[in-house]
Design goal:
By secondary structure, this protein is of the alpha/beta class. About 30% of the residues lie in helices and about 30% in strands. It is built from 9 helices and 15 strands. The two termini are about 25 Å apart. The structure holds adenosine-5'-triphosphate and magnesium ion.
Length: about 280
């Protein structure tokens, strides 16, 4: 049985669980339980604080884990990164009080920087040859300058709203993060097999993201043109309609191209265009 470490509550919890659900693995949400066994796949979820996930996976207490790349980088655990998951996007940035004249990283020399990510920050400062003092605080880093314990901060930014409301401005983007799936690098043959099945399902969900299934009626004479507009995985499906001279055409398109394709298809006589969501694609 596989065991996956998931954040018990917080920004990654919900999307981690819905990712498992998308690949057919149902687990109970973490109420007061630390462990929850799935009834639909040989896997149990272990609910933890995100800080603990890298080491629990590295040490083998959990086979897999879902955690922010920022946490993983900071803690330096020895695990394999199996996939980027496309949620929990954020970055680690340096920010200074908005009134400061900031002209480059040399500004930080001799200053105090508050952060919960001392290792990533230390590496950045060392790379730039900057000698600054790192003040480690575990919460509410953004109030550091206002209460006088630091001159600047190094913290997670997503929209930047928190910085603005604390009178700070982002000046250096240091590290881009998103949630990643990690695994212990020493799995048994059985575990490898289960993991391969999970990864196969996971790929099919990932491929289907942002895809739409489109079907329409089209005059027989426009089919060649429509096939050029709509390249599908192999080629679009064309079915004859009972009405003379008409076909039904089915294909899969990127959601981002959808409206442009619809415009082109209408121009060559497509009618009754139907667009549906795609749940899974098995190539
Ligand atoms: P825990 O109680 O599990 O230690 P936490 O307070 O450390 O939780 P959260 O705030 O829930 O952590 O954030 C978890 C992860 O979500 C972060 O490490 C980061 O990878 C990601 N994340 C994405 N956007 C943001 C954001 N705007 N603020 C904080 N974290 C974000
Ligand atoms: Mg945490």
């Amino acid at each position: 049985m596989l065991r996956i470490a998931i954040q018990s509550k917080g920004r990654l919890n919900e999307e981690s669980l819905s990712l498992l659900q998308d690949i057919g693995i149902e687990v109970d949400a973490p109420k007061r339980k630390l462990l929850s066994k799935s009834q639909t796949f040989p896997l149990e979820a272990l609910y933890l604080r995100d800080d603990d996930i890298p080491h629990v996976v590295a040490g083998g207490t959990a086979t897999l884990g879902i955690v922010g790349l920022n946490e993983l980088e900071e803690r330096g655990a020895d695990v394999d990164i199996l996939a980027r998951l496309g949620f929990g996007a954020c970055r680690l940035s340096l920010a200074v009080p908005k009134g400061e004249d900031y002209e480059g990283p040399a500004w930080f020399s001799g200053r105090r920087i508050a952060t919960s990510y001392p290792n990533i920050l230390r590496k950045y400062l060392d790379d730039k040859g900057i000698d600054a003092k790192i003040e480690v605080i575990t919460g509410s880093v953004e109030i550091g300058p206002a209460i006088g314990i630091a001159d600047a901060i190094f913290d997670i930014v997503s929209s930047g709203g928190t910085l603005v409301s604390n009178g700070l401005k982002e000046v250096e983007r240091v590290f881009e993060s998103e949630a990643v799936l990690i695994s212990n690098d020493n799995l048994s043959e059985e575990e490898e097999k289960l993991l391969a099945e999970m990864m196969f399902r996971f790929e099919s969900v990932k491929v289907s993201r942002g895809k739409k299934y489109i079907l329409m009626n089209i005059p027989r004479a426009s089919v060649e043109e429509a096939i050029r507009i709509l390249p599908a995985m192999r080629s679009p499906t064309v079915l004859p309609l009972a009405a003379e001279g008409w076909c039904s055409l089915h294909s899969v398109v990127n959601a981002s191209d959808l409206w442009e394709k619809i415009r082109q298809l209408k121009a060559i006589g497509a009618e009754g265009i139907l667009v549906l969501g795609v749940d899974k694609i098995i190539p």
